[in-house]
Design a protein that fits this description.
The protein has 8 helices and 2 strands, in the order H-H-E-E-H-H-H-H-H-H. With 188 residues, it is mainly α.
């Protein structure tokens, strides 16, 4: 075993935990979790029966189907935030609207618990933004390129067939359009 191969001696739970951390960091994880947790009480309470001694208390209302639909939609939106984070703004706005609709329809929004969780999850989803990609130094970018199995880049001063010299290439891991205007918005 060489000192460079530290990954082979790690415990599999550590590997899974690191993988989960990476997965969680690339999407609005907490927004999806709070939205799912908000949908559960909204869908559950209209169909629950509480027993106090010999007395059974049913929370069912005439809008039981509506609260079930709202709860299932909130759960679906939570999973959408996790697995299709491109539509996170739509999912966040829809979660906030469903949370507001659940107040009159689903037992005061699942006794305020589901309402607050869904509202918080929707707000977090709208506010979440992916991290900006960083450019690597030339040596690290070359190593990353070689580890992916990509072909090495062209030499820096290669002559084109028509006599025009190609500008030296720097490896970048972000959009060239953002670099063209200095990473600023066109308005300022």
């Amino acid at each position: 075993m060489s000192p460079e191969s530290t990954g082979q001696n790690e415990h599999h739970l550590t590997v899974y935990r690191r993988g989960f951390r990476t997965w969680r960091g690339n999407r609005p994880f907490w927004a999806g979790l709070f939205t799912i947790l908000g949908g559960l009480p909204i869908a559950y309470f209209p169909y629950a029966n509480m027993h106090l001694g010999n007395m059974t208390i049913a929370m069912s209302t005439t809008a039981g189907a509506g609260s079930l639909i709202i709860g299932i939609l909130l759960i679906t939106l939570g999973f959408t935030m996790w697995f299709h984070h491109i539509v996170r703004v739509f999912a966040g706005v829809a979660a906030i609207l469903l949370a507001l609709i659940s107040i009159p329809v689903a037992n005061i929004g699942g006794f305020i618990i589901g309402f607050l969780f869904a509202l918080l999850g929707g707000a977090l989803s709208i506010a979440w933004a992916p991290a900006e990609a960083k450019s690597l130094p030339a040596s690290e970018a070359h190593e990353a390129q070689m580890s992916r199995g990509d072909a090495p880049e062209a030499p820096e001063h290669r002559q084109e067939p028509h006599g025009t010299a190609e500008a030296p290439r720097r490896p970048m891991l972000f959009k060239a359009a953002a670099e063209a205007d200095g990473g600023r918005h066109r308005a300022g």
